Task: structure prediction
Amino acid sequence: MQKSDWQGIFPALLTPFDDADGLDLPMFKKNLLAQVEAGISGVIVAGSLGEASTLTNEEKFELVRCAKDSLAELPVVLCIAEQSTAQAVALAQEAERVGADGLMVLPPMRYKADDDETVLYFKTIARASSLPIMVYNNPIDYKIEVTLEMFRQLAEEDNIIAIKESTRDVSNVTRLANEFGDRFQIFCGVDTLIMEELMLGADGVVGGLVDAFPKETVAIYKLVKAGRYQEALAIYRWYLPLLELDIHPKLVQNIKLAAQATGIGNEAVRAPRQPLAGAEREAVLQVIERAMDTQPQLPDYLHL
Result:
């Protein structure tokens, strides 16, 4: 796969931890291999779902190296979520040295930059690295929206190639396509909108519940792109209660519990997060167990 042809399902990988609160690399590899078997097209490492805010830079690079060893030709994309431009540039340059194939860049953290500051932030990172970049546009969680005018300016940087579209406005997929054609690869970044945005022309999905249910996620993508909408819709309707676990403040705990239930993860999280407990945990488990009891029969989607 060419780096400029990113498409398909890119899991935002979980970061498993062991009993000593270190990286659980064997479990990380187990999950990664399940993703590859299901037909994913690339991975995002150390994103928000990967608990990036609790990871050291060296742990992030260790995850990149581990993913590269397991993935061969598929792109490994490291998330950049920093408070200063200098820190973001340093992380991007080191990521390139350790073998990352691309970067997913969030806007500046904590400080709510204005439009000009945000554009300059992204441009500075792009100019400091030769890696292809996906801009993460999520004003709901990060309070900064990358507008069409801002993307016009970012289009001047050849290595800004993709957008993780998480505004939760599905019509933004069409706005971007109308304005830029195929200049950017558009990825749906909200689990509960994956089928809608794929049908509107999104090139791929950066997903969360794919960490626990990889085959069903890839099947929806493949079926939609093949025009087999009714088959995709049947899977999507089954999937939606699970996908809603992603749009929750405790999405990390929810999805880690789901991955543990399907045998490709564990529910250990790094403080200040704590595993789900009591009635809250039971409610999430009920959603997961109900879905596992009714998992749909999948067609031979890998050969579409």
In short: The chain has twelve helices and eight strands. The chain has one domain: 8-228. The first strand starts at residue 8 and ends at 11.
